[in-house]
Structures are given as structure tokens and as C-alpha cells.
Amino acid sequence: MAHNLQHPTLVFVRGLPGSGKSYFANELQKAINNSLGQDTVVMLDPDATDYDSKDYVDLVASLSAKGVDSKFHPYRFLRARAHGGITSNKVIIWNQPFTNFDGFNKTVINLQAYAKEHKIELPIMVVEVETDHETAKARVLQRKQAGGHGPSDNTFERFKDEYASFVEKGFSTITVNGQDDVAKSVALVMEKLQLSP
Length: 197
What we know:
Strand content: 5-15%
CATH superfamily: P-loop containing nucleotide triphosphate hydrolases
CATH topology: Rossmann fold
Mean pLDDT: 91
Helix content: 40-55%
Structural class: alpha/beta
Radius of gyration: 17 Å
Low-confidence stretches: none
Oligomer: single chain
Distance between the termini: 7 Å
Number of domains: 1
CATH architecture: 3-Layer(aba) Sandwich
């Protein structure tokens, strides 16, 4: 039986490249759709964005006309989709490493301000997917060898050095292990989100 969302919900899924966050995010999306009905989730992932889509091309044209630097276009696209998810009462899953807290916090402030402007409640949860560094690095290498995306070794090391938990930053945060049974991790998050059937 599908539930009706009374307000949108924002879930940030963060972790090092290769931690298993994309797999977790996709499984969480499936579970939410099974519980609440299809088309309930807005999935945001810079690595899975269709940069040739009409929506993206149209937004880039608009941003370019306003003089917005092209390096900000991908982020602005994700943020615009999050805004749409907020006003449509969706569960927004934003899947990205977010190694830099300042950048993460600016995103949260923007989305909270947007929700407030529209008189919408916006609960936020952070899911941190942890995996030991060697496993994460091996997964990235395997993915790249198969033709997928992934950071260079230097970038991975920088991410590893910069990455820290946000649990002390005042956000509702759940830590899951990227090597555990993903179904159990998803069930835990669904329960905390109060989206379980």
C-alpha cells in the first residue's frame, strides 16, 4: 500500500568513492518506490546526470545567459532538481561524496531556505556509507577497468585525507557499512525515515 508524503524528505548519501554509496542509494530508491509508489524519489548524482538531456541543456543556456561560470552548471542543475523535488513532496536522494563540509552546508542552507520560502517542512538525513579504504580503492580501480568512472589515485587519496564524518555537525546521521548486507542497511534507513510499510 502506498503512503502519502506529507512533506518532502532530503537524504544525503555520502562516502568515499568505492564505498558502495551508489549501490546503496539505488537500493534505497527501489525500497522507497516499493513502499510509497513509483515516481516518489528524485535521485541526484553528478556521476549519473545526463548532460545531453534537454533539461540540462536548457538550464545551461539560462545560466550562461546570466553569466554563471560553467563549472557551476552541473551543481546548479542538481540543485534545481532538488528544488523541484521539494515543491513536489518527493524523497530527494542526493548521492555524492561531499568531502567538503562547507560545500555541503551551503547546499543544505540553500535547500532549507527554498523550502522555508515555500512554507514547506524539509527534514534532512545524512547516510554515511563507510568501507575500509583498501576495499574502496580496489572497487574504484575495478570500475575504471570496466570502463566506468572514478577518481585518479591522487584524487582518491585527497578525498580520503579530507573525508570526515558529519555526525558532530548537528545533522540526523546514520552510518552504514558498504560491505554489509545492503537490504539490512536500507531497512534501517527506511525505519529512521519512517517510510517502512
